[in-house]
């Protein structure tokens, strides 16, 4: 599972999660919410959201460092 964001894709804080079976996008504020997904099972989506939640501070810090927020 890989977590990433695209430069200047959107201004709202979010992260993409890529998996061999598909991918998902999660909004991070005001709380972690699934935005879109393709190819992932419910179990994989839960796992992806758990990873995002577990690393939320790191992801937000990386976003702010990259985008100057």
What would your notes on this structure say?
The chain has one domain. It is built from 2 helices and 4 strands; from the N terminus they run E-E-E-E-H-H. The chain has helices at 42-54, 56-67, and strands spanning 2-4, 14-19, 22-27, 33-38. It has a 4-stranded antiparallel sheet with strand order 1-2-3-4, with helices on one face. It is globular. The model has no long low-confidence stretch (mean pLDDT 93).
> What ranges have pLDDT less than 50 throughout 5 or more consecutive residues?
none
Helix amount: 25-40%
Strand content: 25-35%
Quaternary state reads single chain
> If helices are DSSP runs of H or I spanning 4 or more residues, what is the number of helices?
2
**Overall residue-averaged pLDDT value:** 93
What's the SSE blueprint?
Elements: E1 2-4, E2 14-19, E3 22-27, E4 33-38, H1 42-54, H2 56-67
Antiparallel strand pairs: 1-2, 2-3, 3-4
In short, what is this structure?
This protein has 69 residues and is α+β, with helices and mostly antiparallel strands. It has 2 helices and 4 strands; from the N terminus they run ββββαα. The protein has one domain.
Throw out a few tags for this protein.
four-stranded antiparallel sheet, 69 residues, alpha+beta, single chain
